[in-house]
Amino acid sequence: xxxxxxxxxxxxxxxxxxxxxxxxxxxxxxxxxxxxxxxxxxxxxxxxxxxxxxxxxxxxxxxxxxxxxxxxxxxxxxxxxxxxxxxxxxxxxxxxxxxxxxxxxxxxxxxxxxxxxxxxxxxxxxxxxxxxxxxxxxxxxxxxxxxxxxxxxxxxxxxxxxxxxxxxxxxxxxxxxxxxxxxxxxxxxxxxxxxxxxxxxxxxxxxxxxxxxxxxxxxxxxxxxxxxxxxxxxxxxxxxxxxxxxxxxxxxxxxxxxxxxxxxxxxxxxxxxxxxxxxxxxxxxxxxxxxxxxxxxxxxxxxxxxxxxxxxxxxxxxxxxxxxxxxxxxxxxxxxxxxxxxxxxxxxxxxxxxxxxxxxxxxxxxxxxxxxxxxxxxxxxxxxxxxxxxxxxxxxxxxxxxxxxxxxxxxxxxxxxxxxxxxxxxxxxxxxxxxxxxxxxxxxxxxxxxxxxxxxxxxxxxxxxxxxxxxxxxx
Length: 475
Description:
- This protein is α+β, with helices and mostly antiparallel strands.
- It folds into 4 domains: 2-37 and 297-474, Multidrug efflux transporter AcrB transmembrane domain (Multidrug efflux transporter AcrB transmembrane fold, Up-down Bundle); 44-114 and 286-294, 2-Layer Sandwich (Alpha-Beta Plaits), CATH 3.30.70; 124-175; 178-279, Gyrase A, domain 2 (2-Layer Sandwich), CATH 3.30.1360.200.
- It is built from 13 helices and 13 strands.
- α5 runs antiparallel to α6, α9 crosses α10 and α10 packs antiparallel against α11.
């Protein structure tokens, strides 16, 4: 038991040190130590998007608007932790609020693209013509030095004209070199990015297809394996990568439903492309109609008062716990401080953007963390008054309260999951902050408080009943 307590104390100390590194300026050296504020606390940018019909989609129905809204939200906020607001305005417009973004050009570029991914194979007829034109061009290029050496200006001009004509023909043929296949971005399940294995300091984009897409990809790569013919990967009709398929895949093709776009991307390019593909294809194009900078709806004075109110409330809770529950209350105060530090560190690591709903979720989780300790301490007092020893009372108090704590937190997490799944923008932000807070509060209430309590009673000076229950001491 003593060995387990020492291990848990070391784990808690390690987590506290790690959290301090994350939230302090030291963490900024590694891109940490910063938490974003939402549009209502910090200000940012606001974009108005116009949804335009096409020949395929002539009417902008509510279902089309809902699909566009979903894709826009997924592209701008693929992780679902930023307080980005995406909502429809009227019948053909979408309002996007980007907190803390003073230059929305990147978002504008990301939203303006339809991002239609497709895989193409060479057209054999065009390939034969390319080979013929290439051979003819090489012969003409070999004649150029002879014409220059002979000093025949007329012959040189004629050859140069033929070279330009062949180059133009090759360019026209290359535009038709690839033909579309039935493998498109609709067969895509997920996209990400990873460090390139072939080029130093470069990044690749990883793709994972669904079951049907995996079969299509295997069939396509099987037909190209060992031929030397390239597989073309196109985004919005533009080639972004070409790759040859090794002969070892000649029998079955590349199976497993995974692929890598080796476009020698920079990190930001790989992130952008992965988010475009993961976000999905817009069913119709959108145009940015208006961009404006939005000031914070809450001034610095309001933010300062909110911080003071939060600190004041926390201090009152700490005082109440210490006075009413004595030593266990002081231990709960330490656990609550650890909870606040760990939760804040999680917000930084997950890139959570705080707004008023997000702060509300954090404060609500503080209440749940205190509530868990109160349940434990009340059960401990009941056991003490029934005549059990101090050690057995604490052990039984944690055991009896655990079921209630688990049930209440699990149901809250389920509610957070539903809000995150069905909600968007501010609702998702509230669900994320509350969910993180509840998960951390379970750890601090059960593990941290329990370990500190048993460590305290292992010291003779603190192994006194009156430090846990004044009524029991008086009786």
